[in-house]
Amino acid sequence: MAQKMRTTNKYQSTSLAWQCSEAWAGRMVKVLVKIRNLFHPQKQY
């Protein structure tokens, strides 16, 4: 039982880290698009 609890806890922390990194990646993409638009305003991405 303790083994199962440990595995579940590990999985939850991993998925939480994944969500955080996913949100961070999304912000990075938005920033990159803004920078790209600054340098290439005529192109719409």
Residue share in β-strands:
under 5%
Q: Which regions are unreliable across 5 or more consecutive residues at pLDDT < 50?
A: none
Percent of residues in helices comes to over 70%
What's the order of the H and E elements?
A: H
Any idea what the shape is?
Answer: rod-shaped
Write down the overall mean pLDDT: 80
Label the structural class: mainly alpha
Q: Helical region count?
A: 1
Largest beta-sheet details:
none
Distance between the termini: 52 Å
Tally of DSSP β-strands: 0
Backbone CA Rg: 19 Å
Protein name: G patch domain and KOW motifs-containing protein
What does this protein look like?
This protein has 45 residues and is mostly helical. The protein is 84% helix and 0% strand. The chain is built from one helix and no strands. The longest helix has 38 residues.
What are the main properties of this structure?
1 helix; 0% strand; 45 residues; mainly alpha; single chain
Secondary structure blueprint with pairings:
Layout: H1 2-39
Protein name: G patch domain and KOW motifs-containing protein
Organism: Haliotis diversicolor supertexta
In short:
The protein is mainly α and 45 residues long.
